[in-house]
Amino acid sequence: MAKEIKTIGVLTSGGDAPGMNPAIRAVVRTAINKGLKVKGIQKGYNGLINDEIIDMDKKSVADIIQRGGTILYTARCLEFMTEEGQKKAAEICKKHKIDGIVVIGGDGSFRGAQKLAEAGVNTIGLPGTIDLDIACTDYTIGFDTAVNTAMEAIDKIRDTSTSHERCSIIEVMGRNAGYIALWCGIANGAEDILLPERYDGDEQAIINHIIEGRKKGKKHHLIINAEGIGHSTGMARRIEAATGIETRATILGYMQRGGSPTCKDRMYASIMGSYAVDLLAEGKSNRLVAYKDGRFTDYDIDEALAMTKDINDYEFNVSNLLSR
Q: Active-site residue among 16, 99, 107, 131?
């Protein structure tokens, strides 16, 4: 028999991502419209353990849909990784009569959600990460905004790179995944795209490509380097020494996590937030909301975390074709 849910909590965990606020808004307003009480858990699992919990109503999520970051704040929490920390979190939930929680975050956050589910708290995960590295879903909250932010910054860098006839290495985020790098590489017309999933470490091939381009009359050379490869500054020094061409490295960094979410991130995050509450209202637990093959769906978290994901071969081949 499905467990009756009367009070739900919502938290954001791990790295922040544009679109988390629209997701929070959707969770709160959908739940209240269903007659449920809502508790906002601040600072992720750290706030749950430390009892940093507030009551939320429709007004508390007014005028946040356009804001980047997360109004509930976020933090890493090593204590929650321990059995003692998990037990304490479950006791806090019991104290506030929280019988369901929506966790917005990445794969580490979902491992925490598993533990809450095991402790008897119905838990639903929403994929909130700019990295697009959650295997069961084709979309993660924040990716669209982050990749557009990076693309616009790279366009600006390319302008000055062209003016000075430089080689530019631009490092984008993504942790160990190359999706932001791949999308920006194609969208910004990069000559080389370095992805953790594909890069073989052959720096000489890049140097040769730069030299060949100069012989053909190219005035600049753009390299998009994924965070998972890194070391852009050292790479720039080596390329300049080998080619004699002025080479600069730019690390875009945390600017990619900030900013007002795009229409897509607002729309998809809102649908996912409502979907999560629907699942809780049905008595579901240990589920992860996803967008797969053109529709919103959900997976068992255990199943989702066991899945693997890789760069699309056709997209990667196109990136190589268009850069030559």
A: 131
